[in-house]
Design goal:
about 240 residues; alpha+beta; Immunoglobulin-like; 6-stranded mixed sheet; 3 helices; elongated; binds 2-acetamido-2-deoxy-beta-D-glucopyranose; sodium channel regulator activity; glycoprotein
């Protein structure tokens, strides 16, 4: 059975630097101050891409990790499924302290398996053989009593499809070939135009040279013949 899922990001980094929100550049200092202050607490993360499109019948990983710089004590966590507005508990448990496995993990939804690992602050779950009913938003929730009941959560969205859509490129190809064709046509036109201009120029040049040659010939003739000097008149069309 193939497991699809996106990996949650490396958690430790956030402790030192930032909260996961992206803020405008102008409030950089505020952000820094706030993140130093807020990084103390718990953070839940469902990965850099908290979204997955999977085929019905496949088995998916819903990733979630937590970080806490002050450490955890009896961390309560749960997964909840947003079923048309009402939150259904998928599973929950308590992690006694850093590195200790939650035991037991209560599972409230069929085909769900807890695959987390406290060594990696990992509280991901698997959903086996997904059906279209499994589609929706899953909230990874955490509460660390060390923070006086503050709630933290992150959302992962699962989309179930009949079969993975092949991106339809027909239109793109049509547009590309149309544009390409137009450019090719334009280039051909320019080339032909330049070639014709070049040929015309050459003909003109040749004429000029012939003209010069003939006129100088005239001159020599004139010099050798009568001194009646008449300036050589270039031929005109
Ligand atoms: C969490 O655990 C699952 C199952 O062992 C694994 O597939 C996943 O990559 C882990 N995620 C992280 C961020 O370590
Ligand atoms: C997915 O759903 C479609 C239609 O409901 C069904 O024909 C197909 O067999 C299902 N695929 C799997 C792998 O269950
Ligand atoms: C959500 O529930 C409402 C009534 O409770 C119902 O009218 C609606 O069709 C439901 N939507 C879905 C997507 O199930
Ligand atoms: C998932 O489906 C396979 C075969 O379709 C079955 O063998 C397996 O028991 C199912 N797993 C769960 C957890 O339902
Ligand atoms: C945290 O969530 C619980 C329900 O899980 C709720 O009873 C409590 O009021 C929430 N606390 C805060 C500070 O929002």
């Amino acid at each position: 059975m193939e497991v699809q899922g996106s990996e949650a990001e490396e958690p430790r980094f956030w402790c030192l630097f930032s909260s996961r929100t992206t803020w405008p550049r102008t409030s950089l200092i505020v952000t820094l101050l706030l993140s130093v202050w807020s990084a103390q607490g718990l953070e839940m993360s469902t990965g850099k891409v908290p979204f997955l499109e999977a085929v019905n019948g496949s088995t998916v990983l819903l990733p979630c990790t937590y970080t806490s710089c002050i450490g955890i004590k009896n961390l309560y966590f749960s997964w909840q499924f947003n079923d048309n507005g009402t939150m259904q508990k998928v599973c929950d448990s308590v992690i006694p302290s850093d590195g200790m496995e939650p035991h037991p993990v209560n599972i409230f939804r069929q085909r769900v398996e807890f695959v987390g690992n406290s060594e990696q602050n990992n509280i991901s779950i698997l959903i086996w053989n997904i059906t279209f009913d499994d589609e929706g938003q899953y909230t990874c929730f955490g509460r660390n009593p060390k923070e006086k009941g503050k709630n933290h959560s992150a959302i992962f969205t699962l989309v179930v499809v009949d079969e993975l859509r092949v991106v339809d490129n027909t239109l793109t190809i049509i547009i590309a070939s149309a544009v390409g064709g137009a450019i090719a046509l334009l280039m051909t036109f320019m080339l032909v135009k330049n070639f014709i201009l070049f040929v015309l120029f050459k003909i003109e040049e040749k004429k000029k040279i012939e003209c010069l040659v003939s006129s100088s010939a005239d001159e020599t003739n004139n010099v050798s013949g009568s001194k009646a000097s008449k300036p050589p008149t270039p031929k005109k069309k």
